[in-house]
Write a structure and sequence with these properties.
With 681 residues, the protein is mainly beta. Residues 1-10 have a biased composition (Polar residues).
Length: 681
């Protein structure tokens, strides 16, 4: 017999804290933007420029800006293909192997096979093979096999409780499997404290690739740190897995992949996490199947690089949910206040299928890089943003419902191509804002960004507006009120004066910015952001602006229904070009910013009316033409003093009558902005 008195001192560097991991994600995102096909973002750089050179926003051409937006066009298959394949061991690879039975009892084990020793409460497996464990052990099971060994532990009714360390620890092997025998109930629990130098900081800890499979059950309790950890890849194929952990629930440093089974996590830290921060092809979380329920004190799902969901169900409560937004706030080591996100990625977050229900104190879904929804059903509640991406955000398909948020959808570049999107927000429904990627915090990258060969496409949707005028008009005869002359660099909303920026409180007849129909544009600068609706159905109920862009806004297809805004907000707030070129727009709300489409950029007819009375929520509006034919109907989702509609059924310069619950409220000419409107950008 051999004796293993400890699991050995650690030579592995300490795991970074949450703020350090966030910094790593920012560096990887910068690498994505600047190092990966980053010539488009290193505008104005000389031949000897490095990835640490920040791009000057003023030197970025429209084509270069579009290359940033193209990042959100990467679908799930492309992102998965770019990442390293996780090492997963399936049952058919070892099912025909001979099985060694190991009976656990007290602080020892007995077996008739080879490769197993027991001493001092430590059962050591030192050879490749399949081992069936049963019984109870007051100690630890340690796998210390050759580096090329595959070791399968079939858990068949075990209770392993360690008084000193991890319940199961893998110190050396190539691949290790925890297989839950059919009909079995298994329990593992680590010690309530650790000796100095014990690197096995989880109830189940593996310094090799680890796969969980089988149809049995496994309950894991981690008193000190994480539940199940693999310093390489961690995969869950099947079984019923319940993890209660002081810190993270499941952590696969290089990759975490869930393909099936039932997984329930109750974690004080992150629920599911992968935190490799030196390799752009690692640090990933992938969910392709299974039923996963996560309750997390920090992030529900966190990946340093990519999170990809293609199937299964994922239910997340992070930081107490949207109701726990203030309680979950914590101050990180760099002095920044951090809150809990539902699902967060450092580079790409892609949802291509499955069902997601997320309730988070901060953002429900968020990415330091790009976020793409191309399928699935998403129900999101957030203390801050429903969906957020620093670089670009695309909704191509799927059903997205944001039941609660401060801002529903937020990114520098937002594009809706299909699917259904239903947003409820206390502030803006959609908000295209923030710094141009590669120029602010994302440009403060180090030389880590250089040298990567991970490709990024530079193609761009053809209907993306590129006409961003630099000679923005400052208003017509009206003095433009007292609106600020410059948008804040961080993309946040500036304080508005008491007059709302449209005329003055003492003399509203003076008119707003533009001073009359088709008047000049607003005085806030176009920051280069973009918001495009090219397809799908978008419904917004927002207390702030329905659709807000610090740059341009284009509706070229689909259906957009907006309501709920309150003065001084309105259905649309656009610093740059506001173009209607297709689709259907049905918007009601406050007069607020009194934003009108740009007649030069809009190829589809539209009409807008400022009403003399306030319509109640639920009012049914009907638009009829000169012949009395009904063109369209809509219902105000909140109080409304303004209506803006656009449809292929409208004719420019034609006159229409608007009725509210059968009573005429306005006669409107298509293409004419109401008095005081901000249009003609």
């Amino acid at each position: 017999m051999t004796r293993l008195s400890s699991l050995g001192p650690t030579t592995r560097s300490a795991r970074p804290d949450r703020s350090a991991r966030a910094g790593a994600r920012r560096r990887l995102t910068a690498a994505t933007l600047l190092g990966l096909g980053g010539a488009a973002l290193l505008a104005g750089c000389t031949d000897d420029a490095t990835a640490t050179d920040p791009a000057d926003p003023a030197t970025l051409s429209a084509a270069e800006a579009e290359a940033v937006v193209a990042d959100a066009s990467l679908d799930a298959a492309t992102v998965l293909a770019e990442n390293a394949n996780a090492s997963v061991t399936t049952p058919d690879e070892w099912a025909s192997d001979d099985v060694v039975d190991v009976a656990l009892a007290g602080d020892a084990a007995t077996t008739t096979g080879t490769g197993v020793t027991s001493s001092g409460g430590v059962v050591t497996i030192s050879a490749a093979g399949v081992y069936r464990l049963s019984g109870e052990l007051a100690g630890s099971v340690v796998v210390a096999a050759p580096d090329d060994a595959r070791v399968v532990l079939v858990l068949d009714g075990v209770t392993i409780t360690s008084p000193t360390s991890a319940a199961i620890a893998v110190t050396s092997a190539d691949d290790v499997v925890l297989h839950l025998a059919d009909g079995s109930t298994n329990v593992v629990e680590d010690a309530t404290q650790r000796a100095d130098g014990d690197e096995a900081d989880a109830a189940v800890w593996s310094d090799a690739d680890l796969t969980v499979s089988g149809s049995g059950t496994l309950a894991v309790t981690a008193h000190v740190n994480d539940g199940i950890v693999a310093t390489d890849d961690l995969a869950v194929l099947d079984g019923t897995l319940t993890v209660t952990a002081v810190d993270d629930g499941l952590r696969g440093k290089d990759a975490l992949e869930i393909r099936g089974g039932s997984v329930t996590i109750d974690a004080g830290g992150d629920g599911l996490t992968s935190d490799e921060d030196e390799d752009l092809t690692s640090g990933t979380v992938t969910l392709t199947g299974g039923d996963v329920v996560v309750t997390a004190g920090d992030d529900g799902v966190q990946a340093t690089t990519d999170v990809v969901v293609t199937g299964g169900t994922l239910t997340v409560s992070a930081g107490g949910g949207a109701d726990g937004a203030s309680a979950s706030a914590s101050v990180s080591s760099d002095g920044e206040t951090a809150k809990s996100h539902g699902v967060t990625a450092g580079v790409h977050l892609v949802v291509a299928g499955g069902e997601l229900e997320v309730d988070a104190a901060e953002d429900a879904l968020t990415s330091d890089g790009a976020l793409r929804v191309e399928g699935g059903s998403l129900t999101l509640a957030a203390g801050d943003d429903g969906l957020h991406a620093d670089t670009a955000l695309t909704i191509a398909a799927g059903d997205v419902t944001v039941t609660r948020s401060e801002e529903g959808v937020e990114s520098f570049a937002i594009r809706v191509e299909g699917g259904t999107v239903d947003v409820t927000a206390s502030d803006d429904g959609f908000n295209a804002s923030g710094d141009r990627p590669g120029t602010s915090s994302s440009s403060s990258t180090t030389s880590e960004a250089a040298g990567s060969d991970r490709a990024r496409p530079t193609d761009m949707p053809t209907d993306m507006p590129t006409d961003m005028p630099t000679d923005m008009p400052t208003g017509g005869p009206g003095d433009g009120g007292t609106r600020p002359t410059e948008a804040p660099a961080d993309g946040t909303r500036p304080e508005r004066p008491a007059d709302g920026g449209n005329g003055t409180a003492s003399d509203p007849a003076r008119g707003g910015q533009g001073g009359g129909p088709g008047g000049g544009g607003g005085s806030e600068a176009d920051g280069g952001q973009s918001l495009v609706v090219a397809g799908g159905t978008v419904t917004v109920s927002a207390g702030g602006d329905g659709l807000d862009s610090n740059g341009s806004l284009t509706v070229s297809g689909g259906t957009v229904v907006v309501g709920g805004s309150r003065d001084p907000e309105s259905a649309f707030d656009v610093n740059g070009t506001f173009a209607l070129t297709g689709g259907t727009v049905l918007a009601t709300g406050a007069t607020g910013m009194n934003e009108s489409p740009d007649p030069d950029a809009s190829t589809q007819a539209w009409l807008q009316s400022n009403l003399t009375t306030t319509l109640a929520a639920g009012t049914r509006l009907t638009l009829v033409d000169a012949s009395g034919a009904t063109i369209l109907t809509l219902t105000a989702s909140g109080q409304a003093t303004q209506v803006l509609v656009s449809s292929a059924d409208l004719t420019d310069a034609a006159s229409y009558t608007l009725t509210a619950d059968g009573a005429e409220v306005a006669t409107v000419v298509a293409g004419e902005a109401p008095a005081g409107g901000r249009g003609g950008r």
